[in-house]
Amino acid sequence: MDKIDLYRQYIKQILTEHAQISTDKDTVKPQLIFDNENDHYQLAYIGWQGEKRVFGPVMHFDIIILASGNAESSCAASRAISVRIPSRVGNLSRFS
Questions:
Q1: Which CATH number fits domain 3-62: 2.120.10.30, 3.30.365.10, 3.60.10.10, 3.30.310.110?
Q2: Where is 41: in which H helix or E strand?
């Protein structure tokens, strides 16, 4: 298992454990949102408290790959950018 798959597994485990804290009597229920393709993971609470609608993201994780060093001159970093992996150079984020 590579590092990214391991991170995905850990994040899902953390969010799932926190989602299990609620009880069956709660009217606001946890909702796990796993976007494996774009590596976005979220736990939100959704439901009703009396007449009030509740939606609240509680935890959100993104897995982001960053190339360090001079990303512009690095062959590997250039290839990563060409396949749409985000690159951070200095204070700028660039998405090809």
A1: 3.30.310.110
A2: strand 40-49
